[in-house]
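Example protein as discussed:

>
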Amino acid sequence: MLSGGSKPADGLNPSVVAVLAERGLDAGAEFPKPITDEAARAADVIVTMGCGDACPVYPGTRVVDWELTDPTGLPVDAVRPIVDDIDRRVRALLDELLAGAPFTGWTAYHVRRPDGVGVSSRCGPRRRRACQAGTG
């Protein structure tokens, strides 16, 4: 998965980092970075998370919008259900995509929170097993 955003923040949300750590995922080496047009154009699917019309449009690329609560400023207990929701949705989307044609491309999602910060991720051919497990 590639992670990036349209307006990356200065740092990761500490509550999100804590929830990921609880699940055995170390986000310590991660940092907010921009999503590139190249990465978005290479995606099979772009998942937006609440940015609506403000999200970039890539003709020919499937776009799915997930309305989610913005975790900015929320405590860990309030962030857990948001992370759970994203996890369920990503797994369902991967199941859908992997049930169809052979996995040869990229799956990307783009998040723009209400404060304008965006985050994206993608799964690629070399990351298939991790993406299927929901850990890519």
Summary: The chain has one domain: 14-133. Residues 8 and 80 are 22 Å apart (CA to CA). Confidence is low (pLDDT under 50) at residues 109-120, 124-136. Residues 14-133 form a domain with the Rossmann fold fold (CATH 3.40.50.2300).
